[in-house]
Inverse folding.
């Protein structure tokens, strides 16, 4: 038994959940926030048997796209503020950040 924890972009979340449901997987959607961009993203919890992990990863890969996003760096602390021009920097977000955890016990009570 594994728990797949997938951090995905909000834009991909609904289609990903639909694709998982269509294949008979169950998922829990959590609203989350990225530590770096401090913007909303989605964390999905998917509990599966070991032999299903590869298929779930393939679905995540298919449904989640990498996108470029502009970030404006903060003014450096203690530096000269008047001469600092914060140029936006591009970061590539996604497709998805996925953790596969071993589950010791799974109960439905
Ligand atoms: P954020 O932390 O908001 O990060 C968004 C994107 O910013 C990252 O995309 C990466 O391209 C960039 N980034 C993050 N930290 C950076 C840093 N210290 N310096 C430069 N660029 C940085 P992704 O790697 O695709 O990550 C997307 C989201 O997945 C993250 O949102 C975070 O919510 C989650 N995530 C990524 N790695 C994680 C990890 N090791 N543990 C927990 N959550 C993670």
């Amino acid at each position: 038994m594994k728990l797949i924890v997938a951090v995905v972009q909000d834009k991909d979340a609904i289609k990903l959940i639909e694709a998982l449901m269509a294949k008979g997987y169950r998922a829990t959607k959590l609203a989350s926030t990225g530590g770096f961009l401090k913007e909303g993203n989605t964390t999905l919890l998917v509990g599966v048997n070991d032999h299903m992990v590869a298929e779930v990863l393939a679905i995540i890969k298919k449904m989640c796209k990498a996108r470029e996003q502009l970030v404006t760096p903060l003014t450096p602390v203690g530096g000269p503020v008047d001469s600092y021009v914060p140029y936006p920097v591009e970061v590539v977000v996604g497709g998805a950040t996925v953790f596969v955890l071993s589950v010791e016990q799974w109960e439905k009570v």
